[in-house]
Please model this.
Amino acid sequence: MKNKSIHILVFAFLAISFNGLAQDVSFFNGDGFFSIGTQSQRTASITLFDIDKDGDLDALVANGRHWAEQNYIYYNDGRGGFKVAQPIGRFLDASYSVKSADFNNDGFMDIAVANDNVANKIYFGSANQNFDKEATFGSISPSRNLEVVDIDKDGDFDLILSNRKSENEICLNDGKGNFAKIITFGDSSDQTIQTKIVDINKDGFWDIITAERGSKNKIFLNDGKQNFAKIIEFGTTEEETRSIDIGDFDKDGFLDIVTGNLGLKNSIYFGNKELSFNRVFDFTPEHLTSSIKVADLNQDGYLDIVEGNSEERNYVYLGQKDGTFIEIGLREDLKEDTYNIEIGDVNNDGLPDIVESNSGTWNLYYRTKKE
Model:
């Protein structure tokens, strides 16, 4: 049984927010006009990244999941329009995640793709933006998520793979874009859906937090030599956590963890010095949440949460000074399979916008507007 937080989600706030009287921000989609492409593919995730270095956020789209489909780069026109696209790779892949960094330190952005039971790929960038040179990394596993971080702090970008029913992998970069050295963490029986990389205990080393399907979520503490033997578990075995994110919601100097759960209440686990995470705030009602994302959308100094759900409406929870949240539903007419939520200022107006990765229909984005 969870130790419930004294915070509650006040239903009076919910009623007011639906009537548009309490919120100071809205999320505008233009009746579907704001989309990243018009193809109805099995999109697993979208990553916002300035891949062409022109000062705006482009969209890297991972398609397929279990099936072979084409991945794409959609280039931002600087105003939040994505009307020019480029395929990633010559072959279709069963992809879950696409990320970008300069892996071989040649000054050009490269693209890494995590795939489901086919080889993971790196496409190396060049002056002509063709990405025609490629390599593989990691094992052929049911990969579900990919993170980019210099985990060993040697000056290059490493890759962290979340694998479902297989050991997770840290693929260490040799500085030239080769990833032959691999460190595994977790068990082959784990069903890791996502990882977040953060220094949770403030010792100067990157730790790994995992969202686990069918077991407790885990924190793998880094000893500074990329050994992750010390593990802290949080949550319950009943929760099917598909997504996690990090933020200091109560502003006590310790990072908190938000979990997005499929069919159970989503939760905030509040951090403390002891890393016990035993103070918990549950959201209501229960949703089929596949993705959870933290950002200060209205720039009021309090963290907000965006919830991407399966076959039901997506929601924004605006954080308030007293620790409660105002619930705002996104488009009521759309109840899609949202596999991933991404946050970024796509139209360069200074406010973070919301991007949905929807499987089987258009990928939509919402422009954040101050009222």
Observations:
- The mean pLDDT is 93.
- The longest helix spans residues 11-18.
- The two ends are 41 Å apart (CA to CA).
- The chain has one helix and 28 strands.
